[in-house]
Design a protein that fits this description.
Largest sheet of chain A: 6 strands, antiparallel, barrel
CATH architecture of chain A: Roll
Structural class of chain A: alpha+beta
Distance between the termini of chain A: 18 Å
CATH superfamily of chain A: Electron Transport, Fmn-binding Protein, Chain A
Helix content of chain A: 10-25%
Largest interface: A-B, 99 and 99 residues
Strand content of chain A: 25-35%
Shape of chain A: globular
Oligomer: homodimer
Chain lengths: 252, 252
């Protein structure tokens, strides 16, 4: 994939401008994409008959598009089939912050809200390529190690694609921040870090003898930060071929 | 708080029925509340001018109500001030599942979608009590250890309350589940656990000498699962007084 233009940014308007604590807002591609690529779980908001729904989903980014999937039977996918506004949000929860007064209790976090019109991929070829990246984005090269997908399986899976039209990142990373006069009080305050980490892999109990864990899963090591492994896998999955490939499975 | 009636369940209709993989759906209060109380970060979907927004927020549950907060300046709070439909979703992300074909790659998770009409708390007394629980739900007894909130601080904070009208929990907890014939293939498959854990507390660098970490933070120990500490704190925070207190700060 072509490297991000470091000066590129998402346009800002009333929809995505960070209003509360606007000093925490970022709109540049580099910041937004870095936070997206360090995650695989997002929450998608969409509207059905005027009612809001918030659905967790595995997702991935390629260029300025987001992709996610689900069964063709799900409520979300039927709603988005014709193209519908959506907001996909990713949150890295970094700490709880215990201050000297209730008002300054807080949390450190890094989040992205991405807005656009979500659409079903319909071309079988675009869908096939997306289903490869759905796996290979997490585990680069894995699809080539698997039993090939059947036509029935590809038909039973739907893939949603959304070009990011607006996005904002919001970052709080300052730990305890009390009123100046409150530092003189004999009250304990702390930043309590939260870590999302990889555990010990549990091989399938029905694995055949002699089948070893492939080297391409080596980044997923016990105790490692999940976001580090995800960011590394994303970079490897989209490392090449260099030019134009980033839109190879995007439909016109 | 009165113990949950173990037979109680949220009503099921078109809005909250789990459609995809409906064998994963649960509607009983016990399951829904257990998953909510083991979390403090939720994602709220709401609608502004027909556009969906998905906002991360700290929240807590008391009885069949959810509460969350934010600055009076935020987009979400201004939208919800008059009462607006919302969906608050909580997701516990438990594993990535690597199967023998792309189609069966999956994740173990436990999620709740809670639907209702979100409203601003307006009574100063209801708000004051909610602001106590916002802190004490995480750190039981902490408010009594803090500098008291000022009128200005209470005014600058808004609290949203939403009675849960519909809810569904969805749980996948089965690890690798391949097609029967695929188990004969020499392909590595595994469940890769994901853990969200507490790190080493970082005392405020400006803490006064002799100020020790209070005993009521003892549940937040390095390496412990965040959800265990949160569930324990929630149970302690709402342990007493026994009767009727659970709605003490809910407005009529």
């Amino acid at each position: 994939m072509a490297a991000d233009d470091v000066s590129a940014a998402y346009p800002v308007d009333a929809r995505n401008r960070v209003r509360r604590r606007h000093d925490r807002g970022h709109y540049d591609h580099a910041t937004v994409h870095r936070l997206l690529d360090a995650a695989c779980l997002g929450h998608v908001a969409y509207v059905v008959d005027g009612w809001p729904y918030c659905t967790p989903t595995l997702f991935w980014r390629q260029d300025t598009r987001l992709y996610w999937h689900g069964s063709s039977a799900s409520r979300m996918l039927r709603t988005l089939a014709d193209g519908a506004p959506a907001c996909l949000t990713v949150t890295h929860f970094d700490s709880l912050v215990l201050a000297r007064c209730g008002f300054n209790h807080s949390a450190d976090y890094r989040s992205v809200m991405a807005f656009g019109t979500a659409r079903l991929l319909t071309s079988p070829e675009a869908k096939r390529r997306a289903l490869v990246m759905m796996v290979d984005r997490l585990f680069p090269g894995r699809t080539a190690q698997l039993r090939a997908s059947t036509t029935r399986e590809i038909r039973a899976t739907s893939v949603i694609s959304m070009t990011i039209e607006r996005a904002s990142a919001k970052i709080r990373a300052k730990g305890v921040a009390d009123e100046e006069e409150d530092y003189a009080l004999p009250i304990h305050a702390e930043r309590l870090p939260i870590h999302t980490v990889i555990g010990t892999p549990e091989p399938c109990p029905r694995s055949l003898p002699g089948v070893a864990r492939p080297a391409n899963l080596g980044g997923y090591r016990p105790g490692r930060a999940l976001e580090t492994a995800l960011a590394e896998a994303h970079a490897a999955a989209f490392a090449g071929p260099p030019d134009g490939a980033e839109t190879a499975y995007a439909e016109a």
